[in-house]
């Protein structure tokens, strides 16, 4: 066992390098060249999973802001690449070697260039402090330790080390997030922006957090939140406030920025669903590439995820999930059902708007579920309707499951037009306007009043003022 400890000690000593931010020794197991190679590799994977947002002007704008901040950073020798991703999620993140991403979903909820700079500055901070590299190195040493323990004490002890390794990779800790905030504040302040941008982004994300938690509770799900920038801060974080004051007092402020009109820059940006993922409008769903239409009862919510389309009852107790896969055999729908769900019963053939299918009931983990399949060309749409655990009124919802399934159709001329994505536009508030009245004519598919408030920083109940410039969704 001793030889493994000596090996680990040797790796720790030889793996130390100077942190470009603090000037102190950090434990890292990869060189700067290896870090850049890692970033390149993961960058290609990111773009395979989430496409680039197709707006060259917006991409150039974000790159320009990022470039101006990166030259103020502790690693100005790197070429930083800033990419807007075509995702509605409210998030931004960084990879090793200077690859930084912001989702169009987050950009839609920001209201100024200063806020955008604060987000990009924070992510640059993660790169300059080599946070991901440090975490990767820690996970590597734990992996080596796990192997050594496993060889000498058995597999269960090694698994404990693996769990620790997984925890390190699950996200940055509060100290690293605070360091990234501090560095980001330094970079934006020296570039001529106010550190107020940090607080404004905090407000945006805290409002999203409150809304997300309420919505997740209604759906019976875990809330999602932005990985870091202020995610661990309370809204009146004294430590953050003291840190930003220290930056203001300790660093030279750059020439005051004449910021671009941010609303003009994001005019027309896609809001919510992209055309490639399908578009929700009220209680209807349109997908141009799949030539697909669905509708649901007015009080049900349509949830569009990367892998499934979900119809959820008003309180989230009933779910109808739709998945798509390739059809590989020429066979009747019932034969397919017999192969994949051998314990089904009360089955019957379906003929919906010219498409053949089959539906039946089944038991899954002691609960009744509604199964259905519909064949469309060389693809199969698979439906499963079920109740969340703790609910037992299946018959109450089964008729609605069938009703939604029977709306399956191709797009007509109206559907082809409505399959285009929603976009954000600037609007000047008129006399008599309110968020309630604007929500009544909005195309936002779910909670339009709350979403309009979130888009404009007026959540939960701030009023509109005549002449105010706001974002609306068309």
Structure description:
This protein is an alpha+beta fold and 474 residues long. The chain has 3 domains: 2-265, no CATH class; 279-416, Protein Transport Mog1p, Chain A, CATH 3.40.1000.10; 427-473, no CATH class. Helix content is 43%, strand content 21%. The chain has helices at 2-14, 32-49, 56-70, 104-109, 113-128, 131-153, 155-169, 174-190, 196-219, 238-250, 262-265, 333-340, 394-405, 413-418, 435-440, 448-455; strands at 16-18, 25-27, 81-85, 92-95, 99-103, 270-271, 279-281, 284-287, 292-295, 301-304, 309-312, 318-326, 345-352, 355-364, 367-376, 379-387, 422-428, 469-473. The protein has a 7-stranded antiparallel beta sheet, with helices on both faces. Strands 3-5-4 form a 3-stranded mixed beta sheet. A hairpin with a 2-residue loop joins strand 13 (345-352) and strand 14. Helix 5 crosses helix 8 (174-190), helix 5 (113-128) packs across helix 9 and helix 8 (174-190) packs parallel to helix 10. The longest helix is centred in the middle third of the chain and has 24 residues, at 196-219. It is globular and about 75 Å long. It starts with a helix and ends with a strand. Mean pLDDT is 85; it is low at 1-16 and 141-170.
Secondary structure blueprint with pairings:
Elements: H1 2-14, E1 16-18, E2 25-27, H2 32-49, H3 56-70, E3 81-85, E4 92-95, E5 99-103, H4 104-109, H5 113-128, H6 131-153, H7 155-169, H8 174-190, H9 196-219, H10 238-250, H11 262-265, E6 270-271, E7 279-281, E8 284-287, E9 292-295, E10 301-304, E11 309-312, E12 318-326, H12 333-340, E13 345-352, E14 355-364, E15 367-376, E16 379-387, H13 394-405, H14 413-418, E17 422-428, H15 435-440, H16 448-455, E18 469-473
Parallel strand pairs: 3-5
Antiparallel strand pairs: 1-2, 4-5, 6-17, 7-8, 8-9, 10-11, 11-12, 12-16, 13-14, 14-15, 15-16, 17-18
């Amino acid at each position: 066992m001793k030889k493994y400890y000596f090996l680990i000690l040797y790796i720790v000593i030889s793996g130390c390098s100077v942190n470009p931010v603090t000037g102190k020794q950090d434990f890292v197991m990869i060189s700067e060249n290896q870090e850049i190679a890692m970033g390149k590799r993961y960058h290609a994977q990111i773009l395979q999973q989430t496409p680039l947002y197709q707006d060259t002007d917006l991409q150039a704008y974000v790159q320009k802001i990022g470039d101006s901040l990166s030259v103020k950073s502790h690693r100005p020798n790197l070429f930083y690449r800033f990419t807007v991703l075509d995702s509605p999620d409210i998030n931004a993140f960084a990879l090793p070697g200077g690859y930084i991403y912001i989702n169009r979903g987050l950009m839609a909820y920001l209201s100024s260039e200063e806020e955008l700079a604060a987000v990009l500055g924070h992510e640059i901070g993660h790169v300059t402090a080599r946070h991901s590299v440090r975490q990767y190195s820690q996970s590597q040493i734990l992996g080596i330790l796990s192997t050594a323990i496993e060889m000498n004490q058995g597999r269960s002890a090694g698994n404990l080390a693996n769990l620790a390794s997984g925890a390190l990779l699950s996200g940055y800790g509060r100290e690293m997030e605070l360091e990234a905030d501090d560095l980001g504040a330094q970079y934006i302040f020296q570039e001529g922006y106010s550190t107020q941008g940090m607080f404004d982004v905090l407000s945006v994300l805290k409002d999203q957090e409150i809304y997300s938690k309420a919505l997740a509770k209604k759906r019976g799900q875990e809330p999602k939140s932005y990985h870091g920038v202020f995610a661990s801060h309370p809204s009146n974080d004294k430590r953050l406030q003291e840190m930003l004051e220290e930056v203001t007092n300790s660093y030279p402020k750059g020439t005051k920025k004449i910021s671009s009109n941010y609303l003009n820059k994001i005019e027309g940006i896609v809001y919510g669903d992209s055309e490639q993922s399908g578009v929700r409008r009220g209680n209807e769903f349109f997908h141009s590439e799949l030539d697909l239409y669905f509708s649901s009862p007015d009080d049900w919510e349509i949830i569009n995820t990367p892998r499934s389309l979900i119809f959820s009852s008003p309180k989230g107790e009933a779910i109808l999930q739709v998945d798509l896969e390739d059809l590989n055999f020429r066979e009747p729908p019932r034969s397919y059902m017999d192969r994949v769900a051998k314990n089904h019963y009360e089955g019957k053939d379906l003929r919906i708007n010219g498409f053949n299918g089959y539906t039946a009931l089944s038991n899954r983990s002691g609960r009744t579920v509604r199964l259905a399949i519909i064949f469309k060309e060389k693809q199969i749409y698979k439906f499963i309707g079920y109740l969340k655990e703790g609910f037992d009124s299946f018959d109450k919802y089964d008729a609605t499951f069938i009703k939604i399934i029977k709306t399956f159709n191709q797009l007509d001329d109206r559907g082809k037009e409505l399959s285009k994505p929603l976009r954000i536009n600037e609007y000047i508030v008129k006399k008599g306007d309110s968020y309630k009245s604007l929500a009544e004519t909005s195309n936002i598919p779910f909670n339009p009043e709350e979403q309009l408030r979130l888009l404009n920083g007026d959540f939960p109940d701030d009023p509109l003022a005549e002449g105010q410039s706001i974002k609306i969704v068309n």
